[in-house]
Amino acid sequence: MTWDIEVDVAVVGGGACGVMTALRAAGDPGLVVAVFERSAREGCNAAISSGSLAAGGTRFQAAAGIDDSPRRHAEDILRASGDEEWRPVVEALCAAAPRIVEWLADTGYPIEIGTDMPRAGMTAPRLHTDTGRLGGARLMRHLRALLAARDNAAFVDEARAVDLVSRDGEVTGVVVAQNGALQRVRAGAVVLAADGFAADEALVEQYLPHLGTPFYGGVSTSTGDALPWALRLGARLRNMGAGLRSGLVVVDHGTRVSPALPFNGAVLVNLDGERFVDEESKGYSSMAGVLRRQPGERAAMIWDAAAMAATRESEMMRECLAAGAVQDRATLGDLAASLHLTTGQADRALAPLPGRRRLTAPYHLAWVTHGLLATQGGLVIDPSGRVLDEAGAPIPGLYAGGGTACGLAGPHSDGYLSGNGLLSAFGMGWIIGNHLAERTTRAQVQ
Ligand SMILES: Cc1cc2nc3c(=O)[nH]c(=O)nc-3n(C[C@H](O)[C@H](O)[C@H](O)COP(=O)(O)OP(=O)(O)OC[C@H]3O[C@@H](n4cnc5c(N)ncnc54)[C@H](O)[C@@H]3O)c2cc1C
Fold first, then answer.
1. Of 186, 192, 181, the residue nearest 167 (C-alpha)
2. Cβ contact 437:25 at 8 Å
3. Which of the listed residues 44, 178, 183 should we mutate to test ligand 1's pocket, taking the one with most ligand atoms within 8 A of CB?
4. Of 221, 222, 379, best ligand 1 pocket probe by most atoms within 8 Å of the beta carbon
5. What would the pLDDT profile of 339-356 be if each residue is shown by its tens digit?
6. Which domain holds residue 90?
7. Is residue 332 located within the same domain as residue 273?
8. How do residues 250-289 score in pLDDT, each as one tens digit?
9. Is the CB of residue 303 less than 8 Å from the CB of residue 264?
10. How many angstroms separate the Cα of 250 from the Cα of each of 50, 156, 162, 183, 200?
């Protein structure tokens, strides 16, 4: 076998998991690390994400008087997912999360605890975000700049991995298509960080037919490229019917309203003028299923000036406002007309649930529907990110994290808790990168 390039660590995909893996592995100056990215121009989900990082037990929470811990975080995730079998992975990720958030801050990233970001299923405020609320693009720019400053790491763009190379069941490299030619990259370890398959209609139809035809809100590069390569080597798939869904997608715009709106009094009214759900009781992924069952698969999200003031600085609301996705209604009568209701019917629909406040005019309105943002099923890994085969043994030389690996939602999309996506990606990147760096250090000592 002839090789075109030799590295210690080859990372497939330069999004959240891939860049974090590379940064941590390259912390060992004895390792040469290469990230092969299909297309930074088309982008990764991390860069279009809200950039909200779930972590329990950070110094930012402590400073805000919030009592939280990795254990409590893990219990929240497992309560939502019911996926006890995945507990070791969940606990490993939750243990890494506060260290990642604090490390990010120490690298100069402006981060804070989002005390104004309540989410269903979260027993303590634990979403951390950049101080300007600019979303994931800013975070990914920061991380890629850190990687660019490393002498022993390269980010190779427009380089789509197309296959793995293996010998006697051990992964020895990866084949990359670049400038019309195939490059054979020899690697001591290959890390699959190419995200899931939500952009591949046939795979979504195969594994998630129950979603119907949702709006797709992720990037075009999530086509599940890495899954067949790993399956050929005996890897296993898990929880393939679960997705990160959103019930906050604005019809005709594709932007999302803030998940904090229901916690500030916003109500949902369907085309029949019915209030059909306790808005605070559902996470946005689970709300997607509720919306799919409504007439026209949509409902009006209605809120007022106080709710707007509490949420407008989020990147999601800024995008909605810039897109013209929010309608204003001065009076209850105006609002009722938009909902094809009488003023009395609209007044009844807005009646607050026990313990909640009543919205007051003027009102804001957005018609929301369900969307799919990313898939949550994927390869079975162990808590170190090693890809496991049918017998539960690690496939030598092969790691996976982020959306390529099985996620944290459990078997159903309803089990997705806010922040799970980047936790899986950054968390497993952190774990795998550290593991690879430690492994060579140990090998050198021996
Ligand atoms: C709109 C939106 C908002 C979100 N908001 C949040 C949030 O606030 N908090 C949260 O926790 N999660 C959020 N998520 C989920 C989160 O973004 C993902 O779970 C996370 O980015 C997955 O990380 P990843 O590294 O697996 O994939 P990505 O970040 O998508 O990176 C994968 C990379 O692999 C590349 N790639 C694909 N195939 C190949 C190939 N064959 N060869 C080389 N490269 C390849 C892609 O081009 C891409 O750059 C959001 C998702 C969306 C879509």
1. 186
2. yes
3. 44
4. 221
5. 999 999 999 999 999 999
6. 5-241+378-445
7. yes
8. 999 999 999 999 999 999 999 999 999 999 999 999 999 9
9. yes
10. 16, 36, 36, 43, 22
- 195 ligand 1 Cβ < 6 A: yes
CATH number at residue 296: 3.90.700.10
Residue tagged 């079975």 (tokens): 380
Ligand 1 contact via 135 beta carbon (within 6 Å):
no
Q: Which atom of ligand 1 is nearest to the CA of 46?
A: 21
- Which residue of 183, 195, 417 sits with most ligand 1 atoms within 8 Å of its CB, as the best mutation to test the pocket? 195
Which one of 337, 372, 407 terminates a domain? 372
446 band by pLDDT with thresholds 50, 70 and 90: very low
Ligand 1 atom having least distance to the Cα of 159: 43
What is the predicted pLDDT for the residue at 161? 98
Atom of ligand 1 nearest to the CA of 51: 8
- Please work out whether the CB of residue 39 comes within 6 Å of at least one atom of ligand 1: yes
Residue with tokens 């991995």: 161
Are residues 66 and 211 located together in one domain of the fold? Answer: yes
